[in-house]
Amino acid sequence: MDFQLSDDQRALRSGMRDLLGGVFDRDRLRAAVERDGALDRSLWRELGAAGFFALRLPEEAGGVGLGLPEAVLLFEEAGRALLPGPLVATHLAAGLVKGAAEGEAVVTAVAGGLPVAHLAEADAVLVGAEPLTGEALTGEALRAFVAAARPVRSVDPLTPLHSAPADAERAPAVSERTRADAERAPAATERTPAHAGRFRIEAALLTAAEQLGSAARTTEAAVQHAGSREQFGSAVGAFQAVKHLCADMLARTEPARAAVYAAAVTGDPVEIAAAKLLADEAAVRNARDCLQIHGGMGFTWEADVHLHLKRAWLRAASWLTGADAEELLAADLGAAGRLPRSSAAYGRPVPEAGGGG
Q: Which CATH class is domain 7-176?
């Protein structure tokens, strides 16, 4: 079995990196910060035209027909670029909400009791215990929902937040239109098995992919700065303490990459929980170390390091928090039961308590 990316997957990832480099460079990133995170609708449509949102829809439904592993590659690149907006919700709403697949509609979602991102700009909001089978709020219902929500301060200047109304998690009735649209949505497969909460589990995986991209980017930024910045007549990267920080950043990123890619192949909720834990840790700690390596200039508004750190904090609290992921992993370990009290690795069985010999 070959676990390396295929040529097509590499081309897909490279193409998305080139696209984002052209439509969302550093100048546009900084312009988005000055707009307080307000979405650029033309950028959203360009992403739609590139197939970012329709990637997993069947070709007969106007999509690209690819799977979760390919979606992870695109979201990894989005994380590298600090691309703003409710990317995960809009991607998962493709085929469910009109215009989402084409980038004509901005879709956000209510995730537990957490604040809702980009609510004021959304054309639809996914609510309910399982948004894939619920009704999206649009039109008058959406306007009433927004009116009842309250703006809250966001740690990330690129992600405006609102607190949702208290009954936001109540699942609305499933309409005939929603049933028809659901038939066009990405179906459960052997690699993405059907299970309760599939929407939130897949959202957690795509968020982990964004965290992975951010962790890789801050690693590269730290190494680049360490090689070019000089102190006492030498590049700061020549100092052992800085080398250790850079090595630790890489040592966090690569296991997270392996976990995220593997979880994308299996679609297993427990593996996705583990991947989210590793990716969250890599994104947050790498951004902190990158800031440390940049020294005093890393703390300034002009540097981009703080944007990665703030987004990493926000993503870590999204869809599947660290505490929830740990509970899921612990429950799975408990369900597995005790291991047999013998092991072929040691060549002989272990006698049961009270037995002879």
A: mainly alpha
